Amino acid sequence: MGFLRKIYWQVLIAIALGAAFGAIWPASGxxxxxxxxxxxxxxxxxIGPVIFCTIVHGIGSMHDMAKVGRIGLKALILFEVISTFxxxxxxxxxxxxxxxxxxxxxxxxxxxAVEGFVxxxxxxxxxxxxxxxxxxxxxxAFTTGDLLQVLLVSILTGVALSRMGExxxxxxxxxxxxxxxxxxxxxxxxxxxxxxxxGAMAYTIGAFGVKSLANLGTLVATxxxxxxxxxxxxxxTISHLLGFSILKFLRYMREELFIVLxxxxxxxxxxNLMRKLEELGAPSSVVGLVVPMGYSFNxxxxxxxxxxxxxxxxxxxxxxxxxxxEATIILISMLTSKGAAGVTGAGFITLAxxxxxxxxxxIASLGLLLGVDRFMSECRSLTNFISNGVxxxxxxxxxxxLNRGRLTRQLNAGPGKVExxxxx
Length: 424
Hints:
By secondary structure, the protein is mainly α. 73% of the residues lie in helices and 0% in strands.
């Protein structure tokens, strides 16, 4: 029974037990929600400090500020290219499978829940989102939970330290030590992952029920298959060009993937993703900048969900879209998907924001997706997580700072077998 000591087995068992508990005792399962919320909250309280320390140490250790800008620009280019593939793939899947055909009679009037999502979406304009990147105070960046605010203050602090000479170097070293402390705290919190996963899965099944998948099973199945194709074809091709197998990468990240699956959120796995990418040979200066950016600009799972969902609703409402309208949907989705947080429900809000700009499709049709959005959220989060990991390695390779030998050795050895010396 030694395998039970491994966290990913514990999380996998918790997922199964949580699903069974929610199916057998739905009311009790729905009441387990605080367990999942508490675990996510524990991890989330550490994300801001971890990102701050990682970025500040990475940038503070560099004296070439042009390199920082170059890394950010390359990351944005890759984000846009990969995200566009995801948007097109979701659109193509909807045309191929037609998951919304035959559901016209199920489209009802807008519920209060749908109206709430639409209100949130209408409040999230491009200008408002850009202004929201600037925190009201330095400290508030860590209390709002907005990763872009943390990213902004971290970059400014790192640049300032890089210009302070010897004094800046001492502070940078101190920040690095504090960052290691935060990672130790996260390692302690992760021991609670099975409990949080059990609660989140029991709530999902208990509150929404497997029956909610019956009418929309084709849509959910299409989304999962499309996301798998994206991971193995698009991200798999990138991985192959970088010289490693996507399967080995998934194996290396298996603990984090199970946590994402159980909690329906990619945020709980963010700190460990950054740590493991450094284990794989990507410098902290790249990881610390690219991964937080990716959580706002590289949400490929959300992109697939958006175009597939919009076409699904168009089919369900018997709305015929022209080629020009579909091209507009892709362009709009490129904007509305940016800045969606890696938490449960954010994908639905961005979908509402996009749909509000496409008046041909009745906004009331969003109610069709409410029952299954939670099940699709798990796949969105998994795809976002994998995409950000592969993209960070791709940026490091593009910058010629990825330690290829270390990457190969670590992937072959598996997680938990980290070399003592980091030859980066």
